[in-house]
Amino acid sequence: MPIRRLRLLDGGVAPTRLVMAWVEMPSLRVLRSEQVYASADPDDAGLRVRYESANRDFRAALSVDARGLVRDYPHLATLIASE
Fold first, then answer.
1. Would the pTM count as exceeding 0.85?
2. Calpha distance 77→73 (Å, rounded)
3. 8: containing domain
């Protein structure tokens, strides 16, 4: 996962471009996806990572926990805590 591999939670990581594979559903077609990740300032809710798609006009500040697990990915998913 880019968050851990790039050590984004350590802070101070400049924007880094990566090429990823995106699996389209339900066709299972594999698409090239250029993505940019960087450290971001933490907010009151916790740690944050900056994400930007290089293929389309989408940017987000991802909220993550201390392990790098995404808690909130705007417009896509939110982690639901289990008890």
1. no
2. 5
3. 2-78
